[in-house]
Every structure is written in C-alpha cells, then in structure tokens.
Amino acid sequence: MENKVKIARIQAGLTQQQLAEKIGVTRQTISLIEKGKYNPTLRLCLDISYAVNQTLDELFWIEQGSGN
C-alpha cells in the first residue's frame, strides 16, 4: 500500500525506532509500512497519524486510478 508515512515521520523529527515506541510496534513494522509491504490496521493507521500529527488522508490517501 502506498503511503507517506516516511515523509511525515521525518517531518515530525522521529526515527523509525522512536515512532515505533510511541505507537507500540517494532521498528521493523514501521519499516515495512513505509515500504508498502505491510498493510496496517485502521487502529495502527490512526496511531501513526496521531504520532506524526497528520490526518489519515494526508498519510494514506491514494488517488483513484493510481494502479492499486
């Protein structure tokens, strides 16, 4: 799944490890989410959006017709 988690995390000044600790997952989970190799639950998406102070739309919105 395409997302903007990495960009938002960097803008928030967080490392993968710091974000992982804030939301209660492993650094590897954050890495997989950023690479689009892991589809997070809605709860996890919300936790990420709160941690980086962005909306779900800003992080996870995919334009129609973009392939997926």
How does this model look, in words?
- This protein is mostly helical and 68 residues long.
- The protein has a single domain (5-59), classed as 434 Repressor (Amino-terminal Domain) (Orthogonal Bundle), CATH 1.10.260.
- It is built from 5 helices and no strands.
- The chain has helices at residues 5-11, 16-23, 27-34, 42-52, 56-60.
- The chain is globular.
Summarize the structure.
The protein has 5 helices and no strands. The protein has 68 residues and is an all-alpha fold. The chain has one domain: lambda repressor-like DNA-binding domains (434 Repressor (Amino-terminal Domain)), CATH 1.10.260.40.
List the helices and strands and how they pair.
Layout: H1 5-11, H2 16-23, H3 27-34, H4 42-52, H5 56-60
Provide tags for this entry:
68 residues; 5 helices; 434 Repressor (Amino-terminal Domain); globular; mainly alpha
How many H/I helical runs? 5
User: What fraction of residues sit in β-strands?
Assistant: under 5%
From N to C, what is the helix and strand string? HHHHH
Return the structural class: mainly alpha
Identify the CATH class: Mainly Alpha
**What is the rounded distance between the termini?**
8 Å
CATH superfamily, called what?
lambda repressor-like DNA-binding domains
Q: How would the global form be characterised?
A: globular
